[in-house]
Amino acid sequence: MTVFIEAPRFPDAISYGSAGGPTWNTNIVITDSGAEIRNQRWSYPRHEYDVAYGVKASTDLETLLKFFHVVAGQAIGFRYKDHMDFKSCDVDGTVSSSDCVISTASNTTAVQLYKTYTQGSYTRSRKILKPVVGTVLVSVNGSALTTSNFTVYSTLGVVNISAGYSTGVVIKAGFEFDVPVRFNTDTLSVNMEDYKVGAAQCPLIELKWADT
Asked: For strand 137-140 and strand 130-131, is the pairing parallel, antiparallel, or unpaired?
């Protein structure tokens, strides 16, 4: 990733009605017997969205046009709120400092934020790179920390705790977050007579770092 703007975030009024979600990358090989061999190529999914579905009025279209110009099509990345998945807890829940385990510390103060998805006995973690400023809560061994005891690097999704902790201490966090994305097209073409609900495709794609 070369250029990224932290603000403004992609307009919430348009993202709210948009379509999209996570995409994984899986290689499937069919053997001579018909059995499958499946290889998961990515550690984390890459999210894709089509924001044309969120354009409900001419004012939305004008806002989208301005934003597209500012980020120069595919050139500049930006924050996007996925209204189906933007909290460390369920989307209808309340963020708390005990939502997700982010570390069992080993004499460290800098901790990466993760969201944990759980179904039954299965869990999967997602690295969070763009937490929303002012929403991050942190606890150590069940005791919530005050904001004076930690600093959040919202551009990287890293929490810096003022005091180090030994191995075995459980650090948890709760937060809201955005998805780092870019437009996946350099062309915005919309007919003013038919701008509503997906009248034109306008795709976004998540920006992935080397280990995401």
From this structure: unpaired
Beta carbons within 8 Å of 90's beta carbon, 6+ residues apart: none
Q: How far is residue 77's CA from residue 57's CA, in Å, rounded to a whole number?
A: 25
pLDDT digits (tens, 9 = 90+) for 149-195: 999 999 999 999 887 666 678 999 999 999 999 999 999 887 666 55
- Taking only the tens place, the pLDDT of each residue in 69-106 is 999 999 999 999 999 999 999 999 999 999 999 988 66
Q: CA of 118: how far to CAs of 16, 29, 109, 206, 211, in Å?
A: 25, 28, 26, 22, 22
At residue 156, what is the residue type?
L
